[in-house]
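Input:
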Amino acid sequence: MKLPSKVKLVDVGPRDGLQNEKQTVPAATKVELVHRLQAAGLKEIEVTSFVSPKWVPQMADNAEVMAGISRQPDVRYSVLTPNMKGFEAALASRPDEIVVFAAASEAFSQRNINCSIAESIERFRPVTEAARANGIRVRGAISCTVGCPYEGEVAPERVEMVARLLKDIGVQHVGVADTIGVGTPLKVQRAMDAALKHYGIDEVSGHFHDTYGQALANTLVSLAMGVWQFDTSIAGLGGCPYAKGATGNVATEDVVYMLHGMGIETGIDLDKLIDAGQFISDFLGRKTNSRAGLALLNKRAG
Ligand code: HMG
Ligand code: MG
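Output:
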């Protein structure tokens, strides 16, 4: 196995993690979470999304959260923008990067963003052009790259097609997402290979939800392919409101524990990360979803 010596993690907890929460999380709590993540050494944080507040009420405070962050110059703050309306609203918040999100499944595209895959690409085209004209990086996410809650298994050819369409409109990076966490390592490898037909190894990342407990294995198989960028979520928070039953992303703490144990650098201080996870878990009134986080908290207590 030829593994990367360094890995970059994007903590998507404030966005993917909190978007699905039923209880209102005040903007100040989200801002505090972002501050704790950057204090722990995260260099990229997915802060919020500029989507319809009718669809995702939890993200309605997007501008307030962005305005509340004390920015560090070496941290990249990203936000989701599904269309020009979202992009125009996001622009005032000066994101370093925007994320357009497509799906490899037609049914999921319809449920999540209310349009077909082809229509979504036409919506992303002007968003991508406008972002790049404003010096903002553009990342793409492909949902349901191995399985869809409505269509079942998704063929790698679908992933390849969406990766090609995103590449054609100028999207600079693509995240291969297992939205509902059904993927197992060889299927994820095939999905990743499909994205790599159109993007270089430095332009792809893994975004694995951990619903079936496969996310660390899927991370490891991707690392073995040379992939060195992953989306993870503090305390394993998360889920997509339009993917019923899907749980959070792989916990940042678990991935950091694994990587550091393998001698792979992340620049992240695991102790501070555990504190950030405890902060948000305490606020939400439940135990962390991170196994490493829980083990290290128990160790501290004992
Ligand atoms: P739509 O209803 O088709 O949009 O929604 P529309 O253009 O027809 O407009 C309808 C209304 O929405 C109008 O308002 C617009 O102004 C408003 P009205 O006239 O009725 O008062 N609107 C907006 N408001 C705020 N921000 C906007 C915006 N756009 C239109 N950007 C839309 C289309 C995409 C907006 C909608 O479907 C939506 O917001 N969906 C939510 C999608 C979402 O946030 N999903 C979760 C994130 S994706 C995810 O979690 C997956 C990921 O983690 C990877 C993975 O794991 O797979 C990334
Ligand atoms: Mg997700």
